[in-house]
TrEMBL record:
Residue ranges occupied by any Beta-defensin-like domain in the UniProt entry: 23-55
Swiss-Prot/TrEMBL GO biological process terms: defense response
The species this protein was found in: Serinus canaria
GO cellular component, one term: extracellular region
Protein name: Beta-defensin-like domain-containing protein
InterPro entries in the cross-refs: Defensin_beta-like
């Protein structure tokens, strides 16, 4: 039962990291856009705060 207290914070960290951020987007050679990707670009992921990650 004590192991659950150790695993719970680890699971929360993994879920939070899966949400995505601007650093990961830039590493994928993309950029963050407000609502949707502009014409001529494609969706490759999510940035924080409702932004989407796009790439040409």
């Amino acid at each position: 039962m004590k192991i659950l207290f150790l695993l719970f914070p680890l699971i929360l960290l993994l879920v939070q990291g899966a949400a995505g951020n601007a650093v990961v987007c830039r590493r994928l050679r993309g950029f963050c856009s407000r609502r949707s990707c502009p014409y001529g670009t494609r969706f490759i992921g999510r940035c924080a705060g409702g932004y989407v990650c796009c790439r040409r």
